[in-house]
Specification:
Length: 491
Amino acid sequence: MPDVRLASSQGKWIVLTTVLGSSMALLDSTVVNVALPRIGRDLDAGLAALQWTVNAYMLTLAGLILLGGSLGDRYGRRKVFVIGVVWFAVASLLCGIAPNIWVLVASRALQGIGGALLTPGSLALIQASFHPDDRARAVGLWSGFGGVGAAIGPFLGGWLVDGPGWRWVFLLNVPLALLCVPVALRHVPESSGGARAPGRFDVTGAALGAVALALVTYALIDGSQGSLAVVLTAAAVGVAAAVAFVRVERRGSDPMMPLDIFSSRQFTAVNLVTLCVYAAFGGFFFLASLQLQVAVGWSALAAGTALLPTTVLMLLFSARSGALAGRIGPRIPLTVGPLLCAAGMLLMLRVGPGASYAADVLPALLVLGCGMVTLVAPLTATVLASVETARAGLASGVNNAAARAAGLIAVAALPLLAGMGPDAYRTPDAFDSAFHRAMLWCAGVLVVGSGVAFATVRTPAPDCTRPECLTHGSVTAPPLEGRRAGRRLGG
């Protein structure tokens, strides 16, 4: 049994290590969007290349995050976590010195691999190291400090872009890694899944999932400007890879994502809601910082700072929202929350050239933030309550991967659906019109998510798994929950 106490010096070092590691991925997910306009101008990149700058990272992260937890179980959680941190830092360095946009995109894909190793490992180290009596408080500290990192990300990113330059958005990860790795090696005990570790790795499943996401994403991004034959071929092969993925997961002896977990109607329903809401969130945060800089004309710092209210509201009130949902059940929060978010995105229709922060931007973000507070914590709790306790980590990992895949597809599809051309972000009026159409799409998807929740979500069984991550600061995906039992770590 793990026996490290939170009050001990080793306990504090472990928390510091995991916060530093997870903060690298959290910061990266929030600061890059703010830097996109400057990246595009400096590297002479079109909108499609900027989409790939975001999606290359999300693609490898979403495709490999479940596998990353299994690697930690087999080879040692500290070892895999440290490898992930080093990998992420090296990839960040390559991003920072990239001579052109496609080297940057390739380096972002490498970053995603590092993120898939370190993101599950950060929470896994806490759960494998701390005494059970201290584990919940340790997770609370990890989650809270990680949320603070996510909150300052847009502000920090804007300051770096306007100051030393966008390359420092990536180079910032290098000193964090140089601090994190020696602390981890010196103070964090090694642990593994032992007899519960997976017998083999579902490499085929992971590869098919990544190929399916990559080809569908390519078809969506290139849909309005590429060769029709190439786009249709990519889409067809991507769908075929997705079908093959399902067959492999159904028939495999040790699948990465056992499909029988979807036998729970509640679990399936909540994941459908997840797809809807995180598609809208991913599309919104990709386009909002562009809108504030391109159409409204604000600096990167002003645009990044403007987006802070949503994360701050989640940090302050998500735990209370989770407690309320525990009393009244998840159906109302998961129905009302997406509707509030949809209202916030409709209020963004007022944001354009000459917009005022106090009169136009802030009200929209406050309503959006309230909606996120209402739904994110209950969503996580309901996912865990939909399966037996032994599968909580797997359920959380699947839900987290679904959210990231939804954001990935949204970033690829929204510009196509909104009619954004390759140079739209260079023309304020054209981008403003397309942004407004995109917000209507986001609001519509959220309304669909609300309808799914109202029609399908019911009160979980009394014997449900209570999430340990009660503080939520990430806007890109639900928080991961580690396994209390079972073979894999979903996060």
